[in-house]
Amino acid sequence: MLRRATPLSAAVRSLSSGFANITAPLNFWGGKRKASKERNNGENVFEPATGRVLCTLEPCGSTEVGQAVEAAKSAFGTWSKMSGMERARVMIEAAHTIEKRREEIAEMEVVNNGKSITEARLDVDSARLCIEYYAGLSSTLSGQHVQLPGGSFAYTRREPLGVCVGIGAWNYPFQIAAWKSAPALACGNTMVFKPSPVTPVTAVMLAEIFAEAGAPEGLLNVVQGGQETGSLLCHHPDVAKVSFTGSVPTGQKIMEMASKGVKPVTLELGGKSPLLIFEDSDIENAVRGALMANFLSQGQVCSNGTRVFVQREILHEFVDEVVKRTQAIEIGDPLLETTKMGALVSRPHLDKVLAFVEQAKKEGATVLCGGEAFVPSDAKLRHGYYMTPCVLANCKDDMTCVKEEIFGPVMSVLPFDTEEEVLQRANDTTMGLAAGVFTRDVKRAHRVVEHLKAGSCFINNYNITPVEVPFGGFKMSGIGRENGQVTIEHYSQLKTVYVEMGDVDSLF
Ligand SMILES: NC(=O)c1ccc[n+]([C@@H]2O[C@H](COP(=O)([O-])OP(=O)(O)OC[C@H]3O[C@@H](n4cnc5c(N)ncnc54)[C@H](O)[C@@H]3O)[C@@H](O)[C@H]2O)c1
């Protein structure tokens, strides 16, 4: 079980990293936590803030994946027959529990992911809001009535798909589990969720919370593991849909696997999003926006606006302010209230991000600040995965740092002269997850957004994700949407019923 050294109350919080040991099983199906039988192939899971081993991941094999899918299939029989109002009641109860356990869930997210406690609390809130939002929508699912000649008519029914699979990335472990399960469950589906093997700790808490809220056994199940477990889920004949969040190459494999069973997919993939800052911007807000677009979650955010295009007239003023504020970001123990930037998720990932900075230097970019490994003064954090947030200048469009998703705290600044030029450069990428524009000219803002080839666009802000609003990408950044009303369509199917009121007019 989770052992904690200090009480939970936020008022008396004095937690610092290194307090948690996790020994409870992290799989969950049929209403209970389950240990994997294949214990001999366990992998270490690390606490990013300290580099300590946090727990062991026991990947599920085909038997256990089969048991989890079977549990979900059995729960589907009950859950799909409940009315939307009945499903909403369970979901609202789960949301209440999340609100009560907010601090504990956020702490576990920090322990496993390394992001700051302030951000982790917002992630837990987003998860709760998403469940509340879809609880509200679950009783609104309805069809259409179509009058036909001779008194005949047709109607449509919106029906669930069946057992849905969710596969998550490591950057928002609890939030991703909620963003996938909430719309799926609201529509009457059940789910088997597989978190990233790097962050296995909090998804199981969500499954437990649903079970405690009165969900039928098997409503939300969690299996742990990496690509093998994920692939077993995608190929399982009783799985009706796969919803995936992760990198483009894995997304391509998921789509290929799902295609074998003609299963629909939702793909939330990577990005290399542009942020356009025009000379008439409110510079203070543009600087804040650029920091929000680059340094949340140590830069490990899919929608990050890492290509910051700045109109030449304000380049120096903007860059001076961005660098000053970037250097002031407090890096350290992510469980401390004062920390603004915690640790990156793993040692290999930190090394990868630092290598991108080295490559940028080799290709001619200038490091204005950061880009180095950081060792906090607290001895217990010495082996954590920290780096200083980095701003790169003298960037060119064909440099690796401008073309590839770094997924770390590295901002590339690119000067531009005209609107036409910047739009062409901003769209010159195979990705299209997000984009942002800062300007005081309302006509320009909307004109620019119309031409930006990205699924989520921001005017005079960045990285805001209210759950009422659809989120997802164009081009290779994905298929389908999460959040908002439209997601109901991605987790349900339409049945048309034709009703004859006259005689059959046979041609034979
Ligand atoms: N668009 C979004 O909403 C969004 C959100 C968060 C992260 N991301 C993207 O995720 C990436 C970082 O996350 P990551 O490193 O965890 O991604 P990843 O693609 O390496 O892994 C994602 C998940 O897929 C699983 N997986 C890997 N290979 C698989 C296979 N062959 N079959 C089935 N499952 C498999 C992993 O175990 C993990 O759970 C970045 O590219 C980021 O942009 C996108």
From TrEMBL:
InterPro entries cross-referenced by the UniProt entry: Ald_DH/histidinol_DH (IPR016161), Ald_DH_C (IPR016163), Ald_DH_CS_CYS (IPR016160), Ald_DH_CS_GLU (IPR029510), Ald_DH_N (IPR016162), Aldehyde_DH_dom (IPR015590)
Domain of life (superkingdom): Eukaryota
Subcellular location: Cytoplasm, Cytosol
Active site, renumbered: E268
Catalytically driven reaction(s): an aldehyde + NAD(+) + H2O = a carboxylate + NADH + 2 H(+); 4-(trimethylamino)butanal + NAD(+) + H2O = 4-(trimethylamino)butanoate + NADH + 2 H(+)
GO terms under cellular component: cytosol
Stated family: Belongs to the aldehyde dehydrogenase family.
Subunit structure: Homotetramer.
Annotated protein name in UniProt: Aldehyde dehydrogenase 9 family, member A1b
Organism field: Hippocampus comes (Tiger tail seahorse)
Phylogenetic lineage: Eukaryota, Metazoa, Chordata, Craniata, Vertebrata
